[in-house]
Amino acid sequence: MTNENDNCGIYVIEHRDTGRTYVGASSNIKKRHYHHLRELYKGTHHNEELQEAYNQSATGNSCLEFRTIELCDIDELGERETAHIVELNPVFNKYEGGGGYFVVSDSWREKQRKRLVGKQIRKVGTFKTPFGDFPSSCAASRAVDNLLSQPAVWNVCTNPEIEITRQAYCKSRYLQVNFDESVIGKRWSDLGFGLIKTVEQN
């Protein structure tokens, strides 16, 4: 297919010493390449088997070969990643269907907004975020130009101990803009989110 974006698609990482591979998908392959190398160098890569293979190689970053195997539109990433995993059967991938690349649509955001309609009618407390404290989740969302939607702010502030999964990372424009994938596995409270509840008066 013809794709104007030459940096969005499916890539493979091959461990030169063993020939074992990892297949991934990214809307920014060059940036993802850098993050993989940085995490492996720091010993914090989310894929334990790939990290172990990297640690056992004496050649550092040179032990890995990165290749782009297909360019595609962002809304095709999940489907194409899965297809290549099925075809190549990469040893380092943990899941047959890949990690799942979720593309947030306007209809999905509207559905999430409607799901929580009414929860901001009453004052529940102060929403604590890394970018300030706010009297409502709406105000917090506006403060970051809706990188975090109002429902998302509500959820992460009222449930700050929830672990950040890869799916949550892929859904969140705020996380993708401000953090790399090393944030996966942390809790929202680790990033500074929380809620100071209003004390109800009798």
> Strand pairing plus helix content: what structural class?
alpha+beta
The helix/strand series, from N terminus to C terminus, equals: EEHHEHHEEHHHHHE
Radius of gyration: 20 Å
Beta-strand segment tally: 6
Secondary-structure topology with pairs:
Blueprint lengths: L8 E7 L5 E6 L2 H14 L5 H9 L7 E8 L5 H12 L17 H10 L9 E5 L2 E3 L2 H7 L6 H9 L7 H6 L1 H6 L9 H4 L2 E4 L5
Antiparallel strand pairs: 1-2, 1-3, 4-5, 4-6
Compose a concise summary of this entry.
With about 200 residues, this protein is of the alpha+beta class. Helix content is about 40%, strand content about 15%. It is built from 9 helices and 6 strands.
Describe the protein's architecture and organization.
This protein is of the alpha+beta class. 38% of the residues lie in helices and 16% in strands. It is built from 9 helices and 6 strands. Strands 2-1-3 form a 3-stranded antiparallel β-sheet. Helix 5 (137-143) packs across helix 6. 26% of the residues are buried.
Write a concise keyword list for the protein shown above.
9 helices; 3-stranded antiparallel β-sheet; 202 residues; 16% strand
